[in-house]
Amino acid sequence: MIKLCWGGICAVQRMLQHGAMCGYLSLGEMLSIGVKAGTKLQQEFSSWEEVVESYLIGYLHWLRGKGLPEEYQMRVKIYKILQCKKGPFDSIDFFTPLSTKLSEEEKADIKTA
d(Cα 85, Cα 89) in Å, to the nearest integer? Predict the structure, then answer.
């Protein structure tokens, strides 16, 4: 069975990020909803690779009829490039415990972003 996260969890995380950046959500609101969505992602999938594959399948399904195959190919190329480099797929364990509490270092990172 194929699990699709394109229209759900991945989109929620992206909207939360954009909402907080634009000031529509507080950091606390973003973290509260984001941790719930991230926990659901960890329950439904077993690895970053599985999430990305699901995302790409869902994105391809969404594109169907829109005539934009180059958009899909671009995302596949980006994923392949990320697989070859040291990045989040290597450095952040998929089952990292999620929390709404931030360290001082994480807070500083957010302020400088």
Answer: 9
Quickly list DSSP for the chain.
-----TTTHHHHHHHHHHHHHTTSS-HHHHHHHHHHHHHHHHHH-SSHHHHHHHHHHHHHHHHTTT--HHHHHHHHHHHHHHHHSSSHHHHS-TTPPP-S---HHHHHHHHH-
Tell me how far CA of residue 111 lies from CA of 27, 52, 74, 104, 107, in angstroms.
11, 28, 31, 11, 6
Per-residue pLDDT tens over the stretch 68-113: 677 777 877 877 777 766 666 677 889 999 999 988 887 777 665 5
What is the C-alpha separation between 103 and 101, in angstroms, rounded? 7
